[in-house]
Amino acid sequence: MSGLRERKKSATRVALSWAAVRLVVERGYDAVRVEDIAAAADVSVRTFRNYFPTKADAIAFRHRERIEQLADALRARPVDEPLWDAVRSAVQERFALGVETDGAPPDRQWIDGVRVMVEEPALAGALQKAVAGAQTALAEAVAARTGTDPRRDLYPTLVAAAVGAVVSSASELWLRADPPVPFAPLLQEGFDRLTAGLPPTSGSTS
Prior knowledge:
The model is unreliable at 99-105 (pLDDT under 50). The protein is mainly alpha-helical and 206 residues long. It has a single domain (1-196), classed as Orthogonal Bundle (Tetracycline Repressor, domain 2), CATH 1.10.357.10. It has helices at residues 2-27, 34-40, 45-51, 55-76, 83-94, 108-119, 124-146, 154-176, 184-195. 33% of the residues are buried. One of its GO terms (molecular function) is transcription cis-regulatory region binding.
């Protein structure tokens, strides 16, 4: 029974977050109220408040959810797989912006929603909080694979932060690209450069 209850709560949380993203894409951030989001998800404002303190937190949840699912995907990788190979595979499986978290293909609204999350100044604080919480989960997944402790060892937290930096940098470049470019190769390039020690490219200064 508790499992069913948790699944229902998770579904409501996702529905509220997606409604927030969709409405902000359609109307603009300042034109959307908590009441609008609750109505779009067919719940009361009180129910919304049970899940998210603000509309910014509801939107930022989409990003947090992706990183948390990345941590789950990393835990599911073969235990004998080298760490960075496992990280690459987990990222491509669960965090590529070309795929929704339920496996559905992307649509224009989700791409525009990512742009809102990256570019809307009012979301900066909520996104920072969401990323910090999710990267804790990722650091714990890294620690489990490497026999380290994120409370005492720098390594798992550093890996989680580096993964977040690759995804964030690739996302921003992907959103700015004109003409559009595929996202997956940007992720691949980011991890290639990271695991090579970030050597300067031609035209860069060391």
